Structures are given as C-alpha cells and as structure tokens.
Amino acid sequence: MSSETKTELETVQGSGAGSCCSPDGACHDAAADAPTAGVTTVYQVTGMTCGHCESAVGSELSALDGVTSVQAVAATGLVTVVSDAPLDEAAVREAVDEAGYELTGTA
C-alpha cells in the first residue's frame, strides 16, 4: 500500500463522518438519548398460555385510545402497556376480558 493511500485511509477512518461512532471508537445510540414519552403500566393477566394468547391480548389492548405499545408474555402473565396517558383500569379489564382472559391487577 502506498503512503498516499494509507494517509487517505487514516483520514477517512479517523473522521467519524457518517458514523454513529465517535473518533475514539465509542458508539453512540441516539435512541437511548431520546426522552421516553408516555406512561408504562404492567398488568397481571391470567389464562395466557401461548403466543396466540399474547397476540389476542395485545391486539385488544392496542385498540384502546392512547396505547402506543403492548408486550404480553404468557410465561409470566405480565402485560406491559405504554400509553400517552394513564389508562382507565375498567377499559383495560374490558379489553382483556374481550380477548378471553382475566386481568388480576397491576404488577
């Protein structure tokens, strides 16, 4: 490799331009710096046994106004809901009932 090519390579690698990493090699995750918006609530739901159960509960809860994400885990019975504002527990209970499961409270 010629010294000219080596110099060009060092310049490009060391510039940090167009990279998520700083010149010292430390990576930066912009998503980690973003403020988290919303309210996260974890509910205990009984009766879920599989992925279909998780999907059914997730689908019903996702339909509630203000819900931005739902993660249901059958193995633990925990359902994590992120919403724009606190949700009415009666509405959450009704959605879980509609899916065929029982809301037993918050975790």
From TrEMBL:
CDD domains in the cross-refs: HMA (cd00371)
SUPFAM superfamilies with a match to the protein in the record: HMA, heavy metal-associated domain
Highest taxon in the source lineage: Bacteria
Positions of the HMA domain: 39-104
InterPro entries: HMA_dom, HMA_dom_sf
Molecular functions (GO terms): metal ion binding
Residue span of region Disordered: 1-20
Gene3D superfamilies cross-referenced by the UniProt entry: 3.30.70.100
Pfam families associated with the record: HMA
Name of the protein in its database record: Heavy-metal-associated domain-containing protein
